[in-house]
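User: Okay, second chain of the day. Same drill as before: sequence in, structure tokens out.
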Amino acid sequence: MMPISKKRIGIVCPYGWDTPGGVQSHVGDLAQYLISAGHSVSVLAPALSDENLPDYVVSAGRPIAIPYNGAVARVLFGPIAFARVRQWISQGNFDVLHLHEPAIPSISLLACWAAEGPMVGTFHAAAKRQKVSFAVVPFLEPVIEKLTARIAVSEAARETLREHLETDAIVVPNGIYADRYRDGVLEPRWSGNTLGFIGRFQEPRKGLSILLDALPRVVSAFPDVQVFVAGPGNSDETLEVIEPNLRDRIHFLGRISEKEKANFLTSVGLYIAPNTGGESFGIILAEALASGASVVASDIPAFDSLLGHGKYGTTFTSENSQDLAIKIIDLLSHPEERLNKAKQGKEYAQSFDWDVVAEKIFDVYEMAMAGGRKVTLASENRSWNKFLGRDTNE
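Assistant: Same drill. Structure tokens below.
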């Protein structure tokens, strides 16, 4: 059980709170879990609007969009953000700071520079050196060294950290509320020979095009197959590039609620994750497993690891639509084998439940707080001020 000694915990989310994403979900779920356990939690995050923010979230200002790791990240950086970060730290009286993705230009990096004392950094990114954009290296290393402890959400994220910054981390996976998905209801409209996909489907690295390229071969074996796509995006633009004879079997659902997602994952014949890269964990895979879904995913390192190298789900060669089609056909042809693997995956998914994951994170917090220090403001550094474009009187 998590210790009942109440702590004041500051968590920094680097990405815009209003934009759906794995890091935002992780931070929000962790904050709510810690609050329910009796701790005082404040989350600092960029936000497009102060309206409808949870009570525990403090806006650091409006984010801007930058390309990052094959996607668009909405982050906040610069002298005004630095001042807001310092103010939040000075008012927080925190026992520990938990900074997510402190190695990219964001408020997490600013908080790492601005604070002294117990600080834990969680690293989510997984990418090859040439594909990832970390902050300016001369400023990074001394900042990252200030972290008392480091967490990576997967072995893939840990390897990225070791490769880029030559430092190590404890692996603690992302968490899910497994019971929410375990109790999903089977809905006939999504069941049968159906393929499910959830994500920002117009983002190339999410891989929807690979699933659609596999579809003709799948249809030739299973003429009744239907594809259901949930998530934000322009469905009309996507339908335009799909063969006309296939369009009537592809259904775009738009955004769905958490309850609908649990039912969707419970119901679909196969859940397909054809992502091409840039994934360090795969929360949606853990949620799908917890729902009892039969998962087919690309063999990128994070997905392959999460699926136990094929024990809890099926992998196909990344970006190979023909291999994906073969795997789908084989699974639809052998329902008993498919369901047996899904049953194992559902049991395994309990290891990602917040009851387990939050306990591990709090163990890291305790290690960071072992010296008894509180979080305080560091003195402003003139070279950092110069980097931010502030007046240094030089």
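Confidence is low (pLDDT under 50) at residues 130-136.

User: Thanks, on to the next one.
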